[in-house]
Amino acid sequence: MIPKLLVISFTLIIHSTCEPDRRVITTLKYSKFYVKPTIVNGEIASRGRIPYLVSIKEPLRKMGEGRIVWKNLCGGSIISEIKVLTAAHCFEGKNFYYAKNPHVLRVVAGSLRNVLTHSGDTETNVISQWRKLRNVVLHNQFYFPRHDIALIFVNEKWRFMPNVDYVRTAVRSIDYPRSCVSAGFGRTGYSNSDTISPVLLVAQINTIPKAQCTMIWEMNMNSFICSNSALTDVSRGDSGGPLACKGTADPVEKPDRDLLVGVVSGKNFDRTTLYTRISEYHDWIARNAGSKLFNGFMYLLLNTIMFLIYPLFL
């Protein structure tokens, strides 16, 4: 056990749903700074470059009948026909308002734009796909930044095409190739004065080994992936987005396809950017393979079967 270098202070200031997160990830010994992740020094994404990335949108304002302006709240990654993997802290603002009211949000795949005007109705076309949130499952031990992972179940299956597709999730806890990719919207720099990107950005991310990350943070960091922030990075606004790699030696990776290894969680300036390590949550993702409705139905069905066959054993 690493002794009381739990001098890490994880501070949260509750924010309005339309304002930047004010979360602090810091150590009392070294850091005074905080940011919410967003791509920094990224390049503009081409159509279909990151087909599994989605934007979780919140309503900004109503423009008229059937016309609502939506803006990016968080990123996420499509991992099946109905499931999106993202960060749990995306839903904790305002006393977990969005976790309790997921119907307010929308999940948009395929679009490269940050702010969109749309009715919010479920729709599939060659440019983008809009889905409502049927259910949100947060890790039951979530306490930022620990267990910062969540699943979204959408109301209608995604239609896979060149610009909308799923990504496989890592199952082996290993050190990944030094250069991976992340993507998202948000500010193009660390400061609030930096402009918000109107289009999707992609950045090469330099990961560092688990042992080095543990040494830097002075605590066990096996459930995180850390990156070096020297060149390209994440800054404000893209929590929940993907960290994806190729050439990982993970048994589920397929040739020429990205492997989802991390979920963008948080960072500080003096240390490293943190990503939730997906391989550590492989079993949790598998256990939540269906919605609560499906699980409840199975529970009822099994209990009915047991009730019917129990007398046979008396």
Account of the 3D structure:
The chain is globular and about 55 Å long. It has a six-stranded antiparallel beta barrel. It has a six-stranded antiparallel beta barrel with strand order 5-6-7-12-11-8. It starts with 7 loop residues before the first strand and ends in a 5-residue tail after the last helix. Strand 5 and strand 6 form a beta hairpin. 39% of the residues are buried. It is mainly beta. It has four helices and 20 strands. It has a single domain, classed as Beta Barrel (Thrombin, subunit H).
Output the keywords:
314 residues; mainly beta; Thrombin, subunit H; six-stranded antiparallel beta barrel; six-stranded antiparallel barrel; 36% strand; globular
Radius of gyration: 20 Å
Total domain count: 1
Task: Categorize the overall geometry.
Answer: globular
CATH fold call: Thrombin, subunit H
Q: Report the total helices.
A: 4
The CATH homologous superfamily corresponds to Trypsin-like serine proteases
- End-to-end separation in angstroms reads 51 Å
Short description:
This protein is 13% helix and 36% strand. By secondary structure, the protein is mostly beta strands.
Which helices and strands appear, and what pairs or packs with what?
Layout: E1 8-11, E2 24-27, E3 39-40, E4 43-44, E5 53-64, E6 67-78, E7 83-86, H1 93-100, E8 106-109, E9 116-118, E10 123-124, E11 129-138, E12 150-154, E13 168-169, E14 179-187, E15 196-208, H2 210-217, E16 224-228, E17 233-234, E18 242-245, E19 259-267, E20 273-277, H3 282-287, H4 292-309
Parallel strand pairs: 13-19
Antiparallel strand pairs: 1-2, 3-17, 4-15, 5-6, 5-8, 6-7, 6-9, 7-12, 8-11, 10-11, 11-12, 14-15, 14-18, 15-16, 16-20, 18-19, 19-20
Family: Belongs to the peptidase S1 family.
Organism: Vanessa tameamea (Kamehameha butterfly)
Signal peptide: 1-18
